[in-house]
Task: inverse folding
C-alpha cells in the first residue's frame, strides 16, 4: 500500500511525515539565488540540472520568522500545480511504511503548526506530524487547512 | 467560394483534430452528455455548411450521423459500441474526404463506399453487430485516415497499406506536449554540460583539434535547441481559424452585419498558450457581437455604417503577446453596470460615486454582472467576463477593457510567452543578476552620457533624454535591494518600453551580457511579487529571474498612462468623480510674449531655424525645411537671426508654428475649464494656479488648409515648358517633386499649372505666371537657377499671388 508509505524528516526540530506520493526526490541543493520582494518563506531559486526549483523554507513558513542559515541544503523536491519546488528540511530520517496509517491529532497543537498538520503518523514509536507540501506553497494568510 | 470552401475544410479538420482527443473517452463512456453534444454539433455544423457549399457527399454522411446522434440524445437509441464505431467511421470518412478536397484532388475513396458506412449506421441501430472481422468496411476507413489526427487511437489500422492516400497525407505527427517539454529539458541539460565542459577545456588547455570537434558539437547543440524550441510555437492564425465562421453565423443569428478584420496572424506564440486563450477569446468575440455591435437599424439611427466593425489584432510586445478585440458598437453602459453592482450589493451608491470610469468598467469582470438587458442565447448566461478574466489570469495574463459610450469597446488580452526562447539582457542590481527581455529595451546609455539629464523633483526622478522626459527608477529601489555605493563604472540606464504605457527609464548597476534565454513560468509564490515574468537558467547554470517591464512600472508606481488618473488620489478627493484626465501640453511663449499651451501630441519637434529659411508671401509664410516648404504661422515682421519653431504634425501635413521660446512641458487637464471661440484658441485651462490659453490644433490646421485650398498653394503645380532642356528635366524637376510640388513637362498638361518655369526662351503665357530661370547669376531679370532658396520662394510667391 503506497498510502502508508511516508517520508519522515525533521523541520524546525519537529518530526514530520509527508506522503511519499507527493515526493519526487530528495536532493542536496546547490547555491540558492535569493528572490527579492517575496515572502520570507520563499528562499529563492535553485537549479536542479536543467530545472529551476522554487525553494520554500518550511520553518519560516511555520514560524513566520526570517529564515536562518540552514545547516544543510537538503530539500524535498515536489511538483505542485505544474511548478517544481524544493522544500528545505533539517534532516531526513527515513522513508518507510507506517502500518497504522494516519491517525487523528491528539493534544493541543501550537497554533503556528495548526494550519499545516493533518494528523499523526507513527514511526519507531514516535509521533510525526503529517503535512501536505502544497500547503507550504500558499501565502501564510490564505493557507487552507491541511487535508 | 474557394475561400469559403478552404475555410470549411480547415475548420472541419480542425474540429476533427480536437474531437479526436475525445473519441477514446466517449467510447469508454458513451452516456457522457457533453461529448455526445460535441459530436452532434460537429455533424450538425458540417451538414449545415455542406448544404451551403453544395457538397452532397459530405452532407449525406453528416446527416445520417446526425440523425443517429439525435436519436441517442432523445434517448430513443442507446449508444452501444457498434453505433459509436459506425459514427466514428463516418467521422473518419469526412476527415479523409475533407483532406482530399483540401489538396484539390479527387477523393481516393469511391462514393459507393459511403453506402457501407451509412448501412452500418442503420444496421447498428437495429442492434446488429456489424463490425465483425469478416465485414471489411471499418478497415479501409481507418486506413484512409492519415496519421496526424489519430495515431494514438488507431495505430494498427493505419499500418495497413494504402499507398495512394499515404503519399498525399501531410507529413506531420501529433506528440504529447510533455514529450516536447522533456526534450527541451534534455537539450537544456546538454547545453549546461557543454558549457561546463567548455570551461574545463579552457582551464586545462587542450589541443586545437579537440577544440575543433568540440566547437562542432557545440554548434550542433545550439541548432538542436533552436529547433526544439520552434516545435512549441504556432502562428496565431490557428487562434483565428474559427473566428470568421463564428462571426458569420452569429451575425446571421442576431441579424447584425459585421465586418471582421483579423491582423497579426503571423505572430507566433506557444501552442499551449494558444489553447488557453482560445476559449476566452471566443467568448469576448461573442460578447462583442451580441452586446457590443448594434443592429443595422440602430446603427443607421446613430449615423454609423450599417455593418459593425470587429477587429482582432495580435502582436508581440516584448515578453508578452497582446491580443486586442475592438468593436465600434455601443460601448459598455457604465451607469447600468453600476446600477447592477449596487443592486447585487457589490458596492454602495456612495462607493459608486467615488469610482473612476476605469473602476466602473472593471465591474464587468464581477461574477454575475452582465449589462445586457435580457439574456440571449449567444452570451450572457451568467458565465461571463469573470470566467474570461479568471482564465486569462490563470496563465499569468492580464485583461483590460476600455470603452467609449456609443463608440465601441476594446478588450485587450496580454498573455506571457512561456517556455519560449527570447533574447535577453543580463543586468546587475547590487549582488543580484536579472534578465530583461531585449524586446522591451529601446535604448541603453550610461548615466554620465551627455545625452541624458537626471533631475529629482519632489521625490520624482526624471531622466531627460534628447528633450524627452522619462520616469526614472532604479531597479534596486523597486526590488528593495541596496544600491552599490562604489560601483566600478557608471550606472546603465535602460529605456524600457512596456505594454502598459509610455516608455520609462530603468537604472541598473550594469548590463552584463546578452543571451538567448529559455523562459519558463515562475511559480506563483514568485510571480506574486508582480515584477517577475518568469525564470530562466542561463548558460552559467545559475537560475535567474526574468523582469516584467510593465510590472516594474506598476510596482514603482510610475505614471505611464497620460490619460489615466490614480484611483487612490481620486478616492481622497471625492469631488473629482470624473477622472482628472490630463494631457501633456507644451507651455511656450508666443512671439507677442503671451504664454500659451499646445497639446504635446501634435508637436513633432522644436527646432531653431535660420531666419533665411523663412519666406513671406502675399498672404502667408513658408519655412523651407529639407527642400520642402511648410506653411508657417506667426511669421511676424522681425524674425531676428534665428526663429524658434514648433513643427506641428497632424499625421499627414506639417506646419511650422513660430514662437518665441519653449517654457515647459506640463500636465494640463484634458477638459477645458472655459471653452472659447477665438481663432486658434480652444479655451482656458488651469495649470498650477494660473490660467492659460490652450491652442486648438484643429483650428490651426484648418486655418492652413483654408489658406491652401482655394489657391492650391500646396502642392503647387509646376509646369516645365522646355522639355528638351536637360537641366530643367534632370535637375529642376526632381527637385520640385522632392519639395512636394506636382511637375508636368513639355506640352501643358491636362491641369492648368500654377506656375510655368522657363529657361532662356522668353515667351508669355495666358495660363499662368511664368518664372524665368537663368544660368547667369548676374541676370537681374531672371532667377539664378542655383539659388535654391530664392527659386523655391519665388515659386511659392508666384503661385500664391496667382490664387
Result:
Amino acid at each position: 500500500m503506497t498510502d502508508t508509505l511516508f517520508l519522515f524528516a525533521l523541520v524546525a526540530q519537529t518530526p514530520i511525515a509527508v506522503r511519499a506520493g507527493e515526493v519526487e526526490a530528495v536532493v542536496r541543493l546547490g547555491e540558492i539565488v535569493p528572490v527579492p520582494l517575496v515572502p520570507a518563506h520563499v528562499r529563492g531559486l535553485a537549479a536542479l540540472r536543467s530545472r529551476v526549483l522554487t525553494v520554500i523554507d518550511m520553518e519560516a513558513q511555520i514560524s513566520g520568522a526570517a529564515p536562518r542559515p540552514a545547516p544543510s541544503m537538503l530539500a524535498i523536491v515536489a511538483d505542485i500545480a505544474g511548478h517544481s519546488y524544493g522544500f528545505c528540511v533539517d534532516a531526513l530520517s527515513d522513508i518507510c511504511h507506517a502500518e497504522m496509517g494516519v491517525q487523528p491529532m491528539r493534544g493541543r497543537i501550537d497554533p503556528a503548526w495548526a494550519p499545516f498538520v493533518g494528523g499523526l503518523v507513527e514511526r519507531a514509536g514516535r509521533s510525526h506530524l503529517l503535512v501536505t507540501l502544497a500547503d507550504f506553497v500558499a501565502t501564510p494568510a490564505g493557507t487552507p487547512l491541511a487535508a | 467560394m474557394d475561400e469559403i470552401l478552404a475555410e470549411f475544410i480547415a475548420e472541419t479538420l480542425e474540429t476533427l483534430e480536437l474531437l479526436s482527443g475525445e473519441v477514446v473517452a466517449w467510447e469508454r463512456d458513451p452516456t457522457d452528455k457533453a461529448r455526445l453534444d460535441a459530436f452532434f454539433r460537429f455533424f450538425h455544423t458540417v451538414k449545415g455548411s455542406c448544404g451551403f457549399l453544395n457538397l452532397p457527399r459530405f452532407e449525406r454522411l453528416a446527416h445520417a450521423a446526425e440523425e443517429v446522434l439525435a436519436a441517442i440524445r432523445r434517448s430513443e437509441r442507446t449508444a452501444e459500441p457498434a453505433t459509436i464505431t459506425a459514427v466514428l467511421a463516418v467521422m473518419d470518412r469526412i476527415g479523409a474526404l475533407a483532406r482530399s478536397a483540401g489538396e484539390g484532388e479527387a477523393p481516393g475513396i469511391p462514393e459507393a463506399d459511403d453506402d457501407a458506412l451509412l448501412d452500418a449506421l442503420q444496421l447498428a441501430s437495429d442492434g446488429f453487430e456489424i463490425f465483425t472481422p469478416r465485414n471489411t468496411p471499418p478497415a479501409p476507413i481507418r486506413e484512409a485516415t492519415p496519421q496526424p489526427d489519430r495515431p494514438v487511437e488507431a495505430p494498427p489500422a493505419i499500418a495497413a497499406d494504402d499507398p495512394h492516400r499515404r503519399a498525399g497525407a501531410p507529413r506531420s505527427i501529433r506528440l504529447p506536449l510533455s514529450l516536447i517539454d522533456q526534450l527541451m529539458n534534455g537539450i537544456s541539460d546538454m547545453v549546461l554540460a557543454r558549457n561546463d565542459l567548455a570551461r574545463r577545456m579552457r582551464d586545462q588547455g587542450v589541443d586545437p583539434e579537440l577544440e575543433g570537434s568540440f566547437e562542432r558539437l557545440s554548434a550542433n547543440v545550439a541548432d538542436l535547441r533552436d529547433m526544439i524550441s520552434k516545435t512549441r510555437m504556432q502562428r496565431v492564425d490557428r487562434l483565428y481559424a474559427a473566428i470568421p465562421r463564428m462571426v458569420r453565423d452569429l451575425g446571421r443569428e442576431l441579424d447584425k452585419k459585421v465586418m471582421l478584420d483579423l491582423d497579426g496572424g503571423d505572430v507566433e506564440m506557444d501552442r499551449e498558450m494558444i489553447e488557453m486563450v482560445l476559449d476566452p477569446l471566443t467568448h469576448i468575440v461573442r460578447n462583442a457581437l451580441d452586446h457590443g455591435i448594434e443592429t443595422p437599424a440602430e446603427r443607421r439611427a446613430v449615423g454609423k455604417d450599417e455593418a459593425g466593425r470587429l477587429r482582432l489584432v495580435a502582436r508581440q510586445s516584448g515578453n508578452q503577446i497582446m491580443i486586442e478585440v475592438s468593436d465600434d458598437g455601443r460601448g459598455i453602459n457604465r451607469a447600468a453596470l453600476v446600477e447592477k453592482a449596487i443592486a447585487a450589493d457589490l458596492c454602495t451608491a456612495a462607493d459608486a460615486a467615488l469610482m473612476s470610469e476605469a473602476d466602473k468598467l472593471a465591474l464587468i469582470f464581477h461574477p454575475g454582472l452582465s449589462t445586457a438587458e435580457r439574456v440571449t442565447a449567444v452570451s450572457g448566461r451568467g458565465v461571463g467576463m469573470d470566467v474570461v478574466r479568471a482564465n486569462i489570469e490563470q496563465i499569468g495574463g492580464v485583461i483590460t477593457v476600455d470603452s467609449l459610450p456609443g463608440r465601441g469597446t476594446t478588450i485587450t488580452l496580454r498573455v506571457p510567452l512561456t517556455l519560449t526562447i527570447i533574447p535577453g539582457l543580463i543586468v546587475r542590481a547590487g549582488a543580484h543578476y536579472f534578465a530583461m527581455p531585449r524586446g522591451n529595451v529601446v535604448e541603453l546609455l550610461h548615466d554620465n552620457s551627455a545625452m541624458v539629464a537626471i533631475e529629482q523633483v519632489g521625490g520624482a526622478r526624471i531622466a531627460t533624454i534628447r528633450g524627452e522626459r522619462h520616469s526614472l527608477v532604479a531597479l534596486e529601489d523597486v526590488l528593495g535591494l541596496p544600491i552599490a555605493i562604489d560601483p566600478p563604472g557608471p550606472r546603465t540606464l535602460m529605456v524600457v518600453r512596456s505594454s502598459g504605457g509610455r516608455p520609462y527609464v530603468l537604472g541598473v548597476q550594469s548590463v552584463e551580457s546578452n543571451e538567448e534565454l529559455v523562459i519558463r513560468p515562475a511559480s506563483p509564490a514568485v510571480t506574486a511579487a508582480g515584477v517577475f515574468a518568469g525564470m530562466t537558467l542561463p548558460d552559467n547554470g545559475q537560475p535567474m529571474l526574468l523582469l516584467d517591464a510593465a510590472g516594474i512600472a506598476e510596482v514603482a508606481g510610475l505614471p505611464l498612462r497620460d490619460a489615466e488618473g490614480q484611483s487612490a488620489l481620486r478616492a481622497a478627493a471625492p469631488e473629482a468623480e470624473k477622472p482628472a484626465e490630463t494631457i501633456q501640453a507644451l507651455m511656450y511663449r508666443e512671439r507677442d510674449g503671451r504664454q500659451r499651451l499646445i497639446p504635446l501630441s501634435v508637436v513633432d519637434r522644436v527646432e531653431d531655424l535660420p531666419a533665411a529659411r523663412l519666406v513671406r508671401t502675399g498672404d502667408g509664410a513658408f519655412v523651407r525645411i529639407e527642400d520642402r516648404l511648410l506653411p508657417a504661422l506667426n511669421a511676424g515682421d522681425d524674425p531676428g537671426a534665428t526663429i524658434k519653431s514648433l513643427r506641428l504634425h497632424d499625421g499627414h501635413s506639417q506646419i511650422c508654428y513660430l514662437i518665441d521660446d519653449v517654457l515647459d512641458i506640463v500636465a494640463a487637464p484634458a477638459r477645458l475649464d472655459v471653452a472659447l471661440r477665438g481663432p486658434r484658441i480652444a479655451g482656458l485651462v488651469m495649470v498650477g494656479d494660473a490660467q492659460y490659453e490652450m491652442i486648438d490644433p484643429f483650428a490651426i490646421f484648418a486655418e492652413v488648409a483654408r489658406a491652401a485650398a482655394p489657391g492650391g498653394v500646396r502642392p503647387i503645380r509646376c509646369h516645365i515648358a522646355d522639355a528638351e532642356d536637360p537641366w530643367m528635366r534632370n535637375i529642376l524637376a526632381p527637385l520640385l517633386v522632392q519639395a512636394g510640388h506636382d511637375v508636368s513637362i513639355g506640352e501643358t498638361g491636362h491641369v492648368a499649372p500654377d506656375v510655368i518655369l522657363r529657361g532662356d526662351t522668353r515667351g508669355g503665357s495666358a495660363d499662368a505666371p511664368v518664372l524665368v530661370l537663368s544660368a547667369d547669376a548676374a541676370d537681374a531679370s531672371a532667377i539664378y537657377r542655383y539659388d535654391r532658396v530664392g527659386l523655391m520662394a519665388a515659386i511659392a510667391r508666384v503661385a500664391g499671388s496667382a490664387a
In short: Chain A is about 5% helix and 45% strand. Helices of chain A lie at 58-63, 133-137.
